[in-house]
Design goal:
Elements: H1 2-20, E1 25-28, E2 34-37, E3 45-48, H2 51-70, E4 74-77, H3 80-90, H4 97-110, H5 118-127, H6 131-134, H7 157-171, E5 179-183, H8 189-198, E6 201-206, H9 209-222, E7 228-232, E8 242-248, H10 259-268, E9 270-283, H11 291-297, H12 306-315, E10 318-325, H13 327-343, H14 345-351, H15 358-376, E11 382-391, H16 413-416
Parallel strand pairs: 1-3, 5-6, 5-8, 6-7, 8-9
Antiparallel strand pairs: 1-2, 3-4, 9-11, 10-11
Helix pairs in contact: 1-2, 1-3, 2-4, 3-15, 7-8, 13-15
């Protein structure tokens, strides 16, 4: 009786999804019954293998569905991208219900980043997997684990990450000899790029032991001790005042109640008149961060709204100079990570068969592919913002009146060293691309 009742309930859920999406699929229930949804011949199949999985899907919506998939009680056959696209196009990604909201709030209380060791523990949960693991998914050699910048969709992930770093460097107007702080520097990709390509002195701050140790070793191997400094610490501790502040993919980890504190740390690190950039995932409006992401991927994380982030920046005396949305770029970035992750899965599994098991594979493919489809979705309320700011108001002398400098042709090595005159860039017509050429 319970089995029949659960099947009826989950059938109602699946039928509502099928009515809301044009994307075709088949669902197979524990009693062998099949239904189809969408329009056309089914391209993917959802196999609900237990009554428990059916009940979890009914009670916890998409979170219960995913947790049953992680536990092997639901199997997904076909392209996972198409299954995720079905969820986003039908609105099933929003079907969490009150019980998941309660779980989400309880998770926030347990894993907040306010004080003590929580920020480090939360960061190490995800980033502590180590450079060997991430090298099988990210670009080589920078290991940039943030949204890339695709000037053309066919670029490689390395080309797009170099383009992103150059885009950031141009926005903050990096000049040789300047002192720059990279807040939450990850594996140090931007630090090495900025030091080697723009001649600046960079200080990095990162609370994840595994990443900090790896960066320190790379600094020593490259002989850049006089140009790059690495601190294993919370970015809110404060490490002096700098000409430029760069923060790439850190704001999302502040937590619901620490946004203002983290913004204040950025403002305090910047000299009056200095330039800074914060690159972060942001919601449209004030929304809950998905419980799946917080529980299984980024404990302690909280995606802020763009409006709240800007309010906090302005309250700390920062003038907003430019806001750019790179949402579409993140979908391509995640596609590239997924492709490399899939290609290297057997190598990853061999690193640690207990940690990198089938459950880990299902969780991480859901994370990578699900986020790609989220950023690609026509209904997405989640974006990737780059906010350029100054400490106090800029004048006509301290920052250009337009953003033309972002799209100038990249100078040659001789021009960078002052050994050759800068070539005059030809004026473009209205129809010509103004995208900068990617270095490397």
């Amino acid at each position: 009786m319970i089995k029949a009742f659960a099947s009826r309930l989950v059938r109602s859920v699946i039928e509502s999804i099928g009515a809301a999406t044009p994307l075709p699929f088949r669902a197979v229930f524990p009693n062998g019954m099949e239904i189809t949804g969408g329009r056309g011949e089914p391209e993917v199949t959802i196999r609900i293998k237990s009554v428990r999985a059916a009940l979890r899907t009914v009670i916890f919506g998409h979170v219960g569905f995913l947790e049953s998939y992680f536990d092997g009680e639901i199997d997904l056959e076909g392209d996972l991208r198409k299954i995720m696209a079905i969820g986003f196009s039908s609105g099933f990604d929003e079907s969490s219900g009150m019980l998941v909201k309660i779980r989400n709030r309880w998770h926030g209380l347990r894993f907040n980043n306010r004080t003590g060791a929580s920020p480090k523990e939360n960061a190490r949960f995800h980033y502590g997997l180590g450079a060997e693991f991430y090298s099988k998914m990210l670009d080589d050699p920078y290991l940039m684990y943030t949204c890339a910048y695709y000037q053309q969709p066919e670029q490689t992930i390395l080309e797009a990450q170099i383009a992103k770093m150059e885009h950031v460097a141009r926005k903050v107007r990096l000049e040789p000899g300047e002192r720059v702080i990279d807040m939450g520097c990850g594996f140090g990709g931007f630090m090495f790029y900025a030091a080697e390509e723009h001649g600046v002195h960079v200080t990095g701050v990162n609370t994840t032991t595994e990443q900090a140790d790896w960066v320190k070793a790379k600094i020593a191997a490259k002989g850049l001790e006089n140009q790059i400094t690495m601190h294993e610490a919370d970015v809110r501790q404060g490490f002096g005042v700098y000409d430029k502040v760069v923060s790439i993919g850190v704001l999302e980890h502040a937590g619901r109640h620490q946004l203002r504190d983290l913004i204040r740390a950025h403002a305090n690190a910047l000299k009056p008149g200095g330039l800074g950039l914060i690159h972060f995932i942001g919601h449209v409006g004030d929304r809950d961060t998905d419980f799946f992401i917080r529980k299984y991927i980024f404990p302690g994380g909280w995606i802020p709204s763009l409006s709240k982030a800007i309010d906090a920046m302005e309250a700390e005396g920062l003038e907003i100079l430019d806001v750019e949305n790179l949402r579409r770029h993140y979908a391509l970035t995640l596609d590239a990570w997924t492709e490399k992750f899939d290609a290297n899965w057997e190598t990853i599994r061999a690193m640690d068969t207990d940690r990198f098991d089938e459950r880990f594979l299902r969780i991480w493919r859901t994370y990578l592919i699900g986020c790609a489809e989220m950023f690609r979705s026509a209904n997405s309320q989640t974006n990737l913002f780059q906010v350029l700011f100054s400490k106090g108001n800029v004048d006509t002398e301290s920052y250009p009146m337009t953003l033309e400098h972002l799209y100038e042709e990249e100078p040659s090595a001789g021009e960078r060293e002052g050994l050759a005159p800068r070539k005059e860039e030809p004026r473009r017509s209205a129809g010509e691309s103004s995208a900068p050429r990617a270095a490397g």
